[in-house]
Amino acid sequence: MSKISTASKYICALLVAIASFHLLTHILLVLFSEKTMGVDQVTLNFSAFSGFLSHQMTASWQSIAQSLETEGFNSLIILSSIQLIPYLLIYFFLFKLFTLYQQGKVFTLANSHCFKNIARTLFAWIALNLFYPIVVTLFIRLTGLSSELAIYMSISSREFIYLLSGLIIYVMSWVMADACNLKKEQELVI
């Protein structure tokens, strides 16, 4: 049990670091990026440190990103900012799950709920990837900001990976819930 607790402590720290880095790089790109050949990028130069951040739209959203840029909109803010939400939610639920493991709570209903929330986030991410570009386009067209912007709907292998991962994680939550119920039943028998 101590190995699970120790590993969970390191995983929680790593999740905080990754989530912070993800959020910080997104903010830096939004504030300071320049578009070069369709890629948003920032070059950081300090006295002893030099770095490079870049962001390219996923394949399924590349067409709408190019159309938004052609119409004078910032696709990084409009499209990538919304993509940050599912990442942060998954980081949060993983942090919560490994905090439970760190406390020695391995087979509890709270763990099952964390797994379900991760799966639900993946399912919502599929809907976001499919319908958010349509919502953006309709909003821009209905507000009169552009009449030329085409409506895009794209599905890629990424959505199928999210679907499969979400289903697997959802089944894991059911297994966890069943294990909790079996554990309670065994405690009542003794």
Mean pLDDT: 87
> Which H/E pattern describes the elements?
HEEEHHHH
User: What's the β-strand tally?
Assistant: 3
- How widely separated are the two ends? 23 Å
Query: What's the helical proportion of residues?
Result: over 70%
Q: Strand order of the main beta sheet, please?
A: 1-2-3
Tally of separate helices: 5
User: What general outline do the C-alpha atoms trace?
Assistant: flat
What is the structural class?
mainly alpha
Radius of gyration: 21 Å
Task: Give unreliable regions as ranges.
Answer: none
Strand content: 5-15%
Largest sheet: 3 strands, antiparallel
Q: Total domains, how many?
A: 1
How is the topology of this model organized?
Layout: H1 2-32, E1 34-36, E2 39-45, E3 50-55, H2 62-70, H3 75-102, H4 109-142, H5 157-189
Antiparallel strand pairs: 1-2, 2-3
Helix pairs in contact: 1-3, 3-4, 4-5
Tell me what the structure shows.
The chain has helices at 2-32, 62-70, 75-102, 109-142, 157-189, and strands spanning 34-36, 39-45, 50-55. The chain is mainly alpha-helical and 190 residues long. The chain has one domain (2-189). It has a three-stranded antiparallel sheet with strand order 1-2-3, with helices on one face. Helix 3 (75-102) runs antiparallel to helix 4. It is flat. The mean pLDDT is 87.
Describe, in short, the structure shown.
This protein has 190 residues and is mainly alpha-helical. It has one domain (2-189). It has helices spanning 2-32, 62-70, 75-102, 109-142, 157-189, and strands spanning 34-36, 39-45, 50-55.
Task: Please tag this protein with its features.
single chain; 190 residues; mainly alpha; three-stranded antiparallel beta sheet; 5 helices; 71% helix; 8% strand
